[in-house]
């Protein structure tokens, strides 16, 4: 499975009762989420992004919000300011990571790449 494959998938509803990904499974998926870091005993994904200015960081956050709404899978938090954004992902219902978190991370990476390709980031 490649990063492009993950970004082409859609998130599936998580109703709880599903075990979170084991640390070994998280480690296997990490190469498909370049730039992201697993934290808190592999129960969260954290991504940091740098941009040329505040306007681009704001546009990035706006686009991430649109994708999160479309996927019905939302970041735990987004922090942003002049030239940066930080995002944390976790599937709250299972208090850990699910494939959905990696799908969203791949889609977020594509947003960052598109903004950089536009010369905005």
Question: Could you list some keywords that capture this structure?
Answer:
4 helices, 18% strand, alpha+beta, four-stranded antiparallel sheet, 121 residues, Gyrase A, domain 2
Folded structure, characterized:
- By secondary structure, this protein is of the alpha+beta class.
- The protein has a single domain (35-121), classed as Gyrase A, domain 2, CATH 3.30.1360.
- It is 41% helix and 18% strand.
- It is built from 4 helices and 4 strands.
- It has helices at 3-8, 23-29, 54-71, 99-117; strands spanning 36-39, 44-50, 77-81, 84-89.
- A 4-stranded antiparallel beta sheet has the order 1-2-4-3, covered by helices on one side.
- Strand 3 and strand 4 (84-89) form a beta hairpin.
- Helix 3 runs antiparallel to helix 4 (99-117).
- The radius of gyration is 14 Å and the shape is globular.
- The N and C termini lie far apart (28 Å).
């Amino acid at each position: 499975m490649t990063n492009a494959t993950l970004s082409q998938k859609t998130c599936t509803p998580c109703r709880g009762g599903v075990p979170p990904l084991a640390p070994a499974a998280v480690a296997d998926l990490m190469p498909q989420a370049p730039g992201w870091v697993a934290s808190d005993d592999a129960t969260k994904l954290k991504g940091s992004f740098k941009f040329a200015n505040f306007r681009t960081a704001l546009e990035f956050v706006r686009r991430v919000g649109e994708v999160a709404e479309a996927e019905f899978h939302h970041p735990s938090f987004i922090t942003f300011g002049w030239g940066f954004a930080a995002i944390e992902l976790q599937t709250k219902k299972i208090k850990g990571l699910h494939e959905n978190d990696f799908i969203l991370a791949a889609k977020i990476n594509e947003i960052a790449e598109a903004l950089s390709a536009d010369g905005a980031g």
